[in-house]
Amino acid sequence: MSLMGDPADENLETKEMDARSLSFSHGQEPYVHKVGIPPRQNLFKEFQSTVKETLFADDPLRSFKDQSKSRKLVLGIEAIFPIIGWGRTYNLTKLRGDLIAGLTIASLCIPQDIGYAKLANLDPQYGLYSSFIPPLIYAVMGSSRDIAIGPVAVVSLLLGTLLQSEIDPIANPVDYRRLAFTATFFAGITQATLGILRLGFLIDFLSHAAIVGFMGGAAITITLQQLKGFLGIEMFTKKTDVISVIHSVLSSAHHGWNWQTIVIGASFLAFLLYAKYIGKKNPKFFWVPAIAPLISVILSTLFVFLIRADKHGVAIVKHIDKGLNPSSVKEIYFTGDYLGKGFRIGIVAGMIALTEATAIGRTFASMKDYQLDGNKEMVALGAMNVVGSMTSCYVATGSFSRSAVNFMSGCETAVSNIVMSVVVFLTLQFLTPLFKYTPNVILATIIISAVINLVDYKAAILIWKIDKFDFVACMGAFFGVVFASVEIGLLIAVSISFAKILLQVTRPRTAILGKIPRTTVYRNIQQYPEATRVPGVLIIRVDSAIYFSNSNYVKER
To answer: Smaller CB count within 10 Å for the chain: N or C?
Structure first.
């Protein structure tokens, strides 16, 4: 083999790439391409470069370069507390938008919080607590202008299911509540750790298709769980799979259903769904579905109180503790058997909450054309849940329904979360006794109407058209949640997502390229039928990096 190049390059090592497929005619010798090996690097510098590219690709410290010490200190504080940065330009115009948005989402969150707390098998006030402290922390540390913070249906169901498998919430409510705070603490630690170590890319391993399936299955499960309150059933299964729930509903049909409860529930469910229809048909009336839950609570409470429907079998809330969040630092398990259980449940709940919040934040950031720092978001979400666990809150995250209302209401900054927290504070201080006669069925209808949109069948159809394997992941997660449990569905979602990643790495797609007429562009001939192959030349594109795990496969192909 001869070397090509200047005499100065005589010591350059080269590799030969056999291109015999390019020349088979006239008995010519194959043309050999010489590819030079890049110069050797210092091992430490190479490792440093790899770590930087993996974890610090966005160069987070670039704004600190060539700055004075005092300026670096200010920038460091602003990095932790973004409110200091955008707070300088805050004005009355922005306050007006945030005030309207905050009041609107508060009218939506109060009835939802009471219902979601029941979904997590906690007393109603804990849902309100979780919409008071966490939003305040997020407003100071978060970078999204549109996310509305609080309890959400899927995380509440997941937390309630996992906790219930360890402790019976009815037989032992104190230990159950303590385990809930412990799980919330470790959910926050998990989220903050991922952000600090810049490991946010880990949540991207849960594919969009798996998330669509999981959310849809969770929505069906949540709806089925609400049949207890909707039908007025007292004895109801603790299992979440569709078979057990339907069996429990049908077995109590002759003696366990309450017709007064059903009438109230059906009437207000129709009202809530019609309000959603109005808001969807005409965006100008976005406020109608936002205030409909609160109107439903007020009207149903008055109705039950005036006719004393509670005397006729209609279950009511009865009591919500008045006052602000009590401290729960001493209730968190830092030792004992429940420490490990709280840690395990917290990691799962924290990851799901993080996935939902990140997806919501990115969606609205792209709509308003601003950049969202995913790692800062994780630190903010983690900090608010750690503080929340110490102030009687359970896992809070970004709510899609509330965030959508927040966006449509014209929010400008995270101050809308502060406004919402103030309204919740006033509710806890003065208004909780008014919820005494609120029927449980109205909370069930509010939850049902809220989770219906989580069944995104249009996205599932699109996934089917684009990628059949993704559709398998979507349906696997969906049926896992519906027919087994939330944990099984989540496990299936994660497993199929990882299986797809491994499959794509070890079995990369290959495409034969052809030339687009009257251009110098080459494209996949299956996607571009007009592309023509070059006679005597086979042009192949491998849609992956080539290394040890797929080199043999590529060679065989």
So the answer is: N
